[in-house]
């Protein structure tokens, strides 16, 4: 028999953003070479389907699998197994199952064995039917509400969907929930029917265990671990921007300025947005709004909301960005962060800016000129007065340097004035030069002048602060301090007691 190859760390596919759900039709690998998922719009049912495609077994193969599973279960101590690495466990299962095939005299050909092995892997090492979903990078939530009802998932890009997984027998579902509990190092039973635990990858698990005959039986929810955002220092390490650019954002955010991050698809806009959100003062109230959960601003005073797309046909249950944003201003935020603006919600965002709320958002556009045109024409249709509330635009770009894909903050453009014909006068304090791959600090900031006027400070004071913070950020990078919690602590401390932080880092 040839060696079994299961790819446990497949590369993350880049999926298209598709706003019209009825046009979604994508397929990607979950457990190569065995399993993929097909996500498509089912027009008969009027909803999106998450269809897992596993190897198909013939009746004979199924009976082989059953025999092997039964015998393996008797031989193998699962509790001992899960402690080991997955790779070594796979080897162990493979060795044991080959031994069993020989001992029991099963006539399994190589092709069948390869397929059967996948199921042994799935059920012994993985989490049975839902193992492929667990492996999907794009999944946020997995939800099972009992027997005879499909398992639902929440996808990062395509949101709520029905899967083709359904538990038919109460017994199977009960024993699966017991297995979940065991994997969390906990115990669930009729006597203690509630489970709240976490899996080894950090995912949260909630489950109920019930024999109440009127209910649909046990239920479970798995909330996949969402990844920690990159810190400003990590972006420095990757050469995405300069310490000066970061210090500039820090000063602007402290003074409640309005920032748009612009650029083409996948140029790193959202990543930059998450990173600069570190500079929002710790006590400020932040409200965020988006339609795909990508923002990650771990702080106490954060109220996140995600637009809800309707399940099934029609518009019932829909909560769009526009209404969420309008509602958010009633929550009296200091900062409003919108994941991405595309349509009429941009108008509400600028109204918010005009009424004194600081706003940050991303928008799809390659240059300031096209950006301003987009903002002035339908469906957004901003007036020059509203456009003037925008302080600056950061333009992200995607390029190849030394044959490496990189993301750069190409320039920061300040909006000085938009005249009544809609023509913008701008100032560009920071640029990245592609020829020498160097970031330049070209001109004094005009936004600093605006801030000075508004807050009764003088510009020299702000410039001095800008230089000190640049040095601090540079020093953090030099000392290799970039980890999430540590960075957050230092930046928050700086807001309370700057001189203590500066002296700790030897900055005078
Ligand atoms: N500064 C960076 N350096 C290297 N990789 C990055 C950087 N910023 C983002 N990426 C990677 O690029 C991908 C896209 O990033 P991100 O979602 O921030 O882009 P975006 O411009 O917001 O995309 P979209 O147009 O889809 O909203 C992600 O996989 C992310 O990990
Ligand atoms: Mg984005």
Label this structure with key terms.
Beta-Lactamase, 36% helix, binds adenosine-5'-triphosphate, binds magnesium ion, nine-stranded mixed β-sheet, Rossmann fold, 508 residues, elongated
Widest β-sheet, arrangement of strands = 1-2-3-6-5-4-9-8-7
CATH C-level of the largest domain: Alpha Beta
- What would CATH call the homologous superfamily of the largest domain? P-loop containing nucleotide triphosphate hydrolases
Tally the beta strands: 18
Tell me the helix content.
25-40%
The largest sheet is:
9 strands, mixed
What proportion strand?
15-25%
Categorize the overall geometry.
Answer: elongated
Low-confidence stretches: 310-314
Mean pLDDT: 89
Which second-level CATH architecture of the largest domain applies?
Answer: 3-Layer(aba) Sandwich
CATH topology of the largest domain: the name is: Rossmann fold
Number of helices: 17
Question: Over all CA atoms, what is the radius of gyration?
Answer: 27 Å
Distance between the termini: 69 Å
Ligand list = adenosine-5'-triphosphate, magnesium ion
Helical/strand content category: alpha/beta
Number of domains: 3
